[in-house]
Design goal:
The structure holds two protein chains of two kinds.
Chain A (H helix, E strand, L loop, with lengths): L3 E2 L4 E5 L4 E7 L6 E7 L6 E7 L4 E3 L3 E6 L4 E6 L8 E8 L8 E2 L3 E6 L1
Parallel strand pairs in A: 2-11
Antiparallel strand pairs in A: 1-3, 3-8, 4-5, 4-9, 6-7, 7-8, 9-10, 9-11
Chain B lengths: L4 E3 L2 E4 L5 E6 L6 E7 L5 E8 L2 E5 L7 E4 L6 E5 L8 E8 L10 E2 L3 E5 L1
Parallel strand pairs in B: 2-11
Antiparallel strand pairs in B: 1-3, 3-8, 4-5, 4-9, 5-6, 7-8, 9-10, 9-11
The chains are: A mainly beta, B mainly beta.
């Protein structure tokens, strides 16, 4: 069936370095993607989104890249800070099929001081 | 910044009992959702709700589940006869379709449901 998955379950990064979190998706009809951050005891927090008519979108310290050819999504965090330590999820949506989000399994990012 | 709020934060219930989880979505949002996350697993879609009716639901959302918007601010998830496997974090989310398609869903901090 269709699924969204993550390559790396845990990413350890030095404070100040850049982080890259990857996500593979298999539903070629998906046209909207979101990255969420989840801290312990909290709900998923919206970070950034991208529509399928774009291949790059930038926010504050974050960049999302979308490669539709290989169905790959990545989140880049610049100058990673201790507050970035969390689990990061990608989620996809196929608008024609409704509003539900299909989540990936999550990547834990640990920032070392 | 407006946020989705959920109560209670933790609910402990005996198996077979009914439970109601409550959510207050962001006030100008029109789409509402419930998701769940079993410990160590992915966040899974349960149901979406728009214009006072269910717009879509997953296989998980069987006859034991129901949703309601009893007034202009609350959105509830009811499980009629809870099972051990219903133990999970339940997240409510809302989105604003007024800005066009593909709008982000904003999540609450969840209710941890523990079935004994």
């Amino acid at each position: 069936g269709e699924s969204v998955g993550l390559h790396l379950p845990t990413l350890s990064v030095q404070e100040g370095d850049n982080s890259i979190i990857n996500c593979a998706y298999s539903n070629s009809a998906s046209d909207y993607f979101i990255w969420y951050k989840q801290e312990s005891g909290k709900g998923p927090q919206f970070i950034i989104d991208i529509r399928s008519n774009m291949d790059k979108r930038q926010g504050q310290r974050v960049t999302v890249l979308l490669n539709k050819t290989v169905k790959h999504l990545s989140l880049q965090i610049a100058a990673t800070q201790p507050g970035d330590s969390a689990v990061y999820f990608c989620a996809e949506n196929e608008w024609a099929a409704g509003n539900k989000l299909t989540f990936g399994g999550g990547t834990r990012v640990l920032v070392k001081p | 910044e407006p946020e989705v709020t959920q109560t209670p934060s933790h609910q402990v219930t005996q198996m077979g009992q009914e439970v109601i989880l409550r959510c207050v979505p962001i006030s100008n949002h029109l789409y509402f959702y419930w998701y769940r996350q079993i410990l160590g697993q992915k966040v899974e879609f349960l149901v979406s709700f728009y214009n006072n009716e269910i717009s879509e639901k997953s296989e998980i959302f069987d006859d034991q589940f129901s949703v309601e918007r009893p007034d202009g601010s609350n959105f509830t998830l009811k499980i009629r006869s809870t099972k051990l496997e219903d133990s999970a974090m339940y997240f409510c989310a809302s989105s604003d379709p007024g800005q066009g398609r593909n709008q982000p869903q904003h999540f609450g901090d969840g209710t941890r449901l523990s079935i004994l």
